[in-house]
Amino acid sequence: MPTVAPLDLDGHCVAAVFLNDVPHFAMADGLVHRLDHGHKTAQANDGLLCATRDAAGDRLITGGEDGKVFALTSDGTVTELAEAGKKWITSVAAGPQGAVAYAAGRVAFVRFADGKAKEFSHPRSVEGLAFAPKGMRIAVARYNGATLHFPAAEGKPTELEWAGAHTGVTFSPDGNYLITSMQENALHGWKLADGKHMRMAGYPAKVKSLSWAPRGRWLASSGAPAAIVWPFQGKDGPMGKAPLELGTRGNTMVTCVACHPSQDVVAIGYEDGMVIAARFADAKEVLLRRPGKGAITALMWDREERRIVFGSAAGDCGVIDIAG
């Protein structure tokens, strides 16, 4: 039976991650808590809005209302990477070779490891950012679509159009697809080789959490009373195929999903604080955590695939040990 080590914190948990196998919880007040031979804290932004772990798994990148971008390492060292004046940092992304992207208003910035930065202006505000899995390429979610830039090269960006407000963005792990979450209750996608559209609609709520299964064969999503898992094995992705619906619980909405690092299993967090794991092959479920305080807002597996960190909108955080 899985065991849960709870950590009761104040406020909204923006991100829960492992940095070098140490559990970290980034809260909306800018405090980052870590469980490293005791409970320790480090101060990041004054009003934290977004956070992500970098590709190597050893830095947490944060942005916030103070217009600053910080990097935090597992020993508690906090380094300021960038500042955008009085504008809020609304999205951050971590890329290859230590590159970091961040959004402030209508501008997306890419900061390279040497400290040099490049900026890309857009007609409307930048809502989401993602680096491609291979090469130095970045996607920007915006009003009426997405824009792809090559930050290290000159040249025109690639514009992917679709009417509506696009709020988040992710590349498939093989780099073949770009998927955006939308202000309406839907996902939209493009097959990058030919620009073919993919529309994934029918959600009862906004999709706020997306997670790719290993090798990018499946895309799990929140926004329904089950984890909606789209198949990406075919040459046209999920078009014409029905998604899996895992962990259905009456009218209780799924608020967060995190796919297992190596198996076709997804951890599912709900609006009442419950967490389960579900297997794609047969929809078998395992209860990982009973309901608690606040909707689950963050989930992540560790490298050894036996622990999961979680955080909630009410600061109800902790670590689940699958092995018990």
From TrEMBL:
Domain of life: Bacteria
UniProt KW Repeat keyword: yes
Pfam families reported in the protein's UniProt record: WD40
Keywords recorded for this protein, A-Z: Repeat, WD repeat
InterPro entries from the UniProt entry: Quinoprotein_ADH-like_sf (IPR011047), WD40/YVTN_repeat-like_dom_sf (IPR015943), WD40_rpt (IPR001680)
PANTHER family in UniProt: F-BOX AND WD REPEAT DOMAIN CONTAINING 7, WD40 REPEAT PROTEIN
UniProt-recorded name of the protein: Anaphase-promoting complex subunit 4 WD40 domain-containing protein
